[in-house]
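To: structure desk
From: M.T.
Subject: fold request, one chain
Message: Could you run this one when you get a chance? Sequence is below, nothing fancy, just the single chain.
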Amino acid sequence: MNKKNTSKKFSQNKRTRSRDHYRSHQSGQVIIGALLLFLTISITVLVGIATPVAIQVRSAADFLQSKQSYISADVLNEEALYRLNKGKTLPSSIVLSFNDATSTALISDVGSKKQVLATGVSGLFTRLSQSLFTQGQGGFALNYGTQVGIGGIRMEGSPTINGNVIANSDIIGSGVSTINGNVVVASVSPQVVDASNEGVYPPPSNVIFGKSASTQDFAQSFTVSTTTELSNIAVYIKKTGSPGNVNVYITTNSGSSPSSSYIAQATLNKTQVSSSYYWIPITFNTKISFTPGTTYWIVFDAGSNSSSKNYSIAMNTSSSYPGTSKSGVYGGTWSSPLSNSDAYFQIYLGDPSKISGVVVNGSAYGDIINNSTISGTLYCESGTGNNKDCNASSSTPNAITYPYSDTNISNWKTEATNGGVYNGNLTIEGVTATTTGPLKINGNLKVSASGRMSVTGTIYVTGNVVIEGVGDLSLASSYGSRSGVIVADGTVQITSSASLSGSGTTGSYITVVTTSGCGGISTTCTNPAVALSGNSDAVVVFAPNGKIKFEGSARANALIAYAIDLSGNVRVNYNSALSTISYDDSTSGGGSTSWITDTWKEISF
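Reply: Done. Structure tokens follow.
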């Protein structure tokens, strides 16, 4: 091969390599460009996605802080209403902190109403809530589906209580006993009178307190014989005019007079005291164990004085009780109002009570809780066989009093008697829409067969009440949203397909009251004070001295008694409207007037 051909060939190869290199370089640039384009698009997409997500996260955080600020403010409105209805101290301001929120409430009087202005702050957010609370006329606060005294509650079969339950004694269940609500068992059961002083009736003398500056307050000394915790006290008392509530203290002894500091505090509600003497129970908000033989004092602090608005406490002038009574001013000077005289009073003590064998779809509070299933928090000092361990962070409350007092019952009896008196047994059988009331019946009341009774006023029956067959007893439509009362001194039987109902307007109920002690404090009768097995649409049953036997497929809205037995497929269906149940104004004297909501709203700056 000659040089010329060799050189030509080399030149051709060189051109081919250059062309291939160019093509390769051009291809690499395309790939890099495509990669950069992909990265640019990806980053753009990611930024597009991340930005709204970040905004949503921030918005959610802002919403949470805003919601926390409102809730923290709103909670103080509820706290104020709770304190008003429980007779607890309501200061001029309340501060609350939880999680990252802080709230402050300012409480003021607006005429006869209470205004609560609450400010909640969480992070950068501030929200305001305002409420006005007023006292309902003739209103009563029924806050529990079932409330029982020292006789306790027994549940067997498959009974259900839809509502909260509070008991001053044991709650014992078997079968499938269900409570859809919170359960509270007081720390004392059974109650025993450890110290007391009484005399003849009517009392021979009295001491007036709250009438003048020097005798504004009253005190009575006492001792106990055991360290068993205090349940409550009772005092025989009446009022003149319309005085205010009374602070009641338990104090130690200081120089033969009450000390200036107290170990427990309670409130004597003015509405539970009437112009006639009655035993009024008083429950304290602190558990106390006394030292036997040590002198203590019950102090009644009226807080103000008026010649036309005051209280009179019954006194035994021939008392053998080894105590002392004093008049004066709490924290000031005391003197003896009557020589050799002590007040009519009673000191109740008791032992820890328990909950056993129930299903609670809520929280449970008790000293001893056994063999129960609790969906909420289980607050107890000891327990076995439960679905969770005891939480001992909350102390069990002391016994509570009934929502109705002896004064209320007496006023209802008077209301009925003023309407007229029927002497003999009254039987309504096969008669449609018989209108009755207000009326006192000196005998028994019986509504049976297809008898229908429309109640237009308070009924007082000195004997027994029987509603049976397909008998129907209801309130007249004129009651509107108010409730009516039937009071019996004897027993009450509501059986078969008998029914009770309100006026047909929401908030209207029939309240059946019996003073019978059968099945309760009385040992002379074995039947219950109330036997309830029929149908009932809107009914509250109150038997403060006896037992309610609730069986079959019966229904009721609230049961309140010394003792309660539930069996079969019974249901207690509590309605929140009962928290402000109201009666005729003329029957409400001495009623436990409750605070209700006038307005409740969020406000802006």
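Reply (cont.): The helical segments are 3-86, 406-418. Let me know if you need anything else for the meeting.
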